[in-house]
Write a structure and sequence with these properties.
Helix content is 31%, strand content 16%. Strand 4 and strand 5 form a beta hairpin. Strands 1, 2, 3, 4, 5, 6, 17 and 18 form an 8-stranded mixed sheet that branches. Helix 1 packs parallel to helix 13 and helix 13 runs parallel beside helix 15. The chain folds into 2 domains: 288 residues, FAD/NAD(P)-binding domain, CATH 3.50.50.60; 206 residues, no CATH class. By secondary structure, it is of the alpha/beta class.
């Protein structure tokens, strides 16, 4: 064990070096002049984009919106190649930023935080790592990401399987060769929908095991033209203004018209145009798609009809379009010829709703109806989202309160930024913030800037502790619930927004559904009124 002499004293420890951790380091170190350090368990920067290297891994936000906007120089110096960037390009971008801002000297790679305990007598955190170091930090800032704790389902017999198996969130960096292999993939969420066409193009045969049919929108990927690249740089201020003044952080507004009140022929034409345009703009066709069941049904029926039109085998088309939740009630993926993939001779679909998986055998996957022999199993089963990457850390606050126990019935935060009983700890895009319901980079920038301003104000006043209250947290949780109930989102009982994909996890709607612009206004008001709901001492 380290002696107290070996404990390193810093102003802030930041956990994670993705978009959030890198900007938080830059803000504290280069803007406020604080001594900040990032701890990162990976061997490189990039966070989600360092770990998620599965086939077809790609962003579902358009590239010109999936970047930092806090620096004009970074916007002007970087050039994206495609409409929706693939994982290698996003990772290159984050490495470019790390180099451009000289962040690497204060990022410690290959290091996991094993515990963080709050010392009530000093109002500081003692952070211990798996490499044996200890840090005494005034602030603990978690930038661990919403989708970073892989959810491997506990299916009986997995240890008996003689082939290889992989989870998409823990993909081998050297890749996997599917040539000549029989592959089984479990899961048709956004990850599965991205991976399936790529694996199918390489494998001898691909069997897709689907429990929940999913909506998906065509991405219409294409290389960016020189004209568009020039436009995006020239109009970056306008683009940023749109991103930060709308519901979802993307570079477009939701059309202010009702699907129900729009004549059927006009509505159909609108859907056709947005479908051809590709991407999330389909969701922005009408203002009431997420608030009115009848309006939602018009979009859902349109997409189901498209699926049945694309898939040649009527039985397969029926299974793929038998979707049991409202459109956009779960984050709808965007795809690159996903439904077309089922027209290939080497792809078959297994409906797990009619025949669930019983176990994994030495040879493959056995459902209640038959055994499917495969050489490789791919789990595209998502993540223990929003809270999983936080509660697995040993975080202990005031009065020996552990984060895991305190959140055992669901997460409690104020604004998704602080947790009662955990002074001087901030969570970036934590539960209770817009996070996964919006484009992540602008929401991350807003969080980092709010946290940095708060710390700056404390330093200016000579204060050394900030802590939110139970009452403020309860009030905020009511607002999170109110915002969710105003939409169709809570109607999806098997959504990871509620934690339903992880057995035993409490079913609580976690992100803030009131819209990014509205959330930003609330945060600004709290700060301008002297941080109401937060005590500084």
């Amino acid at each position: 064990m380290n002696t107290s002499a070996a404990i390193q004293k810093v102003d802030a420890i930041i956990i994670g070096s993705g978009f959030a951790g890198m900007y938080q380091l830059h803000s504290l170190r280069d803007k406020l002049g604080l001594n900040a350090k990032v701890i990162e368990r990976g061997a490189g920067v990039g966070g989600t984009w360092y770990w998620n290297r599965y086939p077809g891994a790609r962003c579902d936000s358009e590239s010109h919106t999936y970047m930092y906007y806090f620096s004009k120089e970074l916007v002007q110096e970087w050039e994206w190649s495609e409409r929706y960037p693939q994982q290698p390009e996003i990772l290159r971008y984050l490495n470019f930023v790390a180099d451009r801002l000289n962040l690497r000297s204060d990022i410690q790679l290959n290091t996991a935080m094993t515990q963080a305990h709050f010392n009530e007598s000093t109002n500081r955190w003692l952070v211990t790592t798996d490499t044996g170091e200890q840090y005494d930090a005034q602030f603990l800032i978690t930038a661990v990401g919403c989708l970073s704790n892989a959810n491997v389902p506990k299916i009986p017999g997995i240890s008996d399987f003689k082939g290889d198996w992989y989870h998409t969130g823990q993909w081998p960096h050297e890749g996997v060769d599917f040539t000549g292999k029989r592959v089984g993939i479990i899961g048709t969420g956004s990850t599965g929908i991205q991976a399936i066409p790529v694996i199918a193009a390489q494998a001898k045969h691909l069997t897709v095991f689907q429990r929940t049919a999913n909506y998906s929108l065509p991405a219409r990927h294409h290389p960016l033209s020189d004209e568009f690249k020039e436009y995006a740089k020239k109009h970056s201020a306008d683009i940023y203004k749109v991103m930060t003044s709308n519901t979802n952080g993307h570079a477009f507004y939701i059309d202010d018209r009702s699907a129900i009140e729009t004549p059927a022929d006009v509505r159909q034409k609108t859907y056709e145009e947005k479908w051809e345009m590709g991407g999330f703009q389909f969701r922005a066709s009408f203002r009431d798609l997420l608030t009115d069941e009848a309006a939602n049904k018009t979009a859902a029926d349109f997409i189901r009809q498209k699926i049945r039109g694309i898939v040649k085998d009527p039985k397969v088309g029926e299974i793929l379009s038998d979707i049991d939740h409202p459109f956009a009630g779960k984050r709808p993926p965007i795809d690159d010829h996903y439904f077309e993939t089922y027209n290939r001779d080497n792809v078959s679909l297994v409906d797990l709703r009619s025949a669930p998986i019983e176990k994994i055998t030495a040879k493959g996957i056995k459902t209640t109806e038959q055994e499917y022999e495969v050489d490789i199993i791919v789990f595209a089963t998502g993540f223990d989202a929003m809270t999983g990457s936080l509660v697995r850390l040993d975080i202990v606050g005031r009065n020996k309160r552990t984060l895991k126990d305190y959140w055992s019935a669901g997460p409690k935060t104020n604004l998704g930024l602080q947790v009662p009983g955990f002074p001087n700890m901030f969570t970036i895009t934590g539960p209770g913030s817009p996070s996964v319901l919006s484009n992540m980079p602008p929401t991350i920038e807003q969080h980092v800037e709010w946290i940095s301003d708060c710390i700056s104000k404390m330093k200016a006043k000579g204060l050394n502790c900030v802590e939110t209250s139970e009452a403020a947290s309860e009030a905020w949780q009511k607002e999170v619930d109110r915002a969710a109930q105003a939409t169709l989102l809570p109607k999806v009982k098997h959504s990871w927004y509620l934690g339903a994909n992880v057995p035993g996890k409490p079913q609580v709607f976690m992100p803030y559904a009131g819209g990014f612009a509205h959330y930003r206004t609330i945060c600004d008001k709290v700060a301008s009124e002297g941080y109401t709901g937060f005590q500084m001492s």
